[in-house]
């Protein structure tokens, strides 16, 4: 029997790897529904669904290696980053799914959540008040009208796989749906600003870099408490807190 490897595990979901098969166990079957539907619709390489028996979804591993990981230098080539940008553009140009995604939250709801998280960070002395205030100001640029696109919603670099300069698969589609295209670009380049130019070149159209930077601040401010409460460390080198510091 192949070794069982825990890829990620917290109170909401767990992912295990057994050989070339990933087993995703999720307490919310709605997220699994979104993932299966999005992979069927997306015009980019996605994992093959092997079987589904709630609460477990089995998918095949995609070839290649992750584009990188947050907090670590990426060894992928500029051409691979550009290929990721081109794949994202193809996704964003595809027909819209019916569901709203993580990148499609209403502006009023998002602003309220952002204000609440900033207050929590300062009140509990998790981060310095001036750091939070400055990043809240930067984040404001993301709170603007946007044209809906087919978005992945959680496009961190560990979810994009490459072989050489070719995209071989994009995984973890549970947050997919209609949303702000620049949210995906910002998520991919979070903590890897040095590759933003490559991604934008591959994306092939002008983007508002100030909005991407705003999403870096907004996503990081919203993520710190969740990461802490689920056993992750946002203060690790190159991760969310460092991103917030770099914005000032």
UniProtKB/TrEMBL annotation:
Residue ranges annotated for the Aminoglycoside phosphotransferase domain, each copy included: 42-204
SUPFAM superfamilies assigned to the protein according to its UniProt record, in alphabetical order: Protein kinase-like (PK-like)
Annotated InterPro entries: AGP_Transferase, Aminoglycoside_PTrfase, Kinase-like_dom_sf
Pfam families linked to this entry: APH
Protein name, UniProt field: Phosphotransferase family protein
Organism: Streptomyces viridiviolaceus
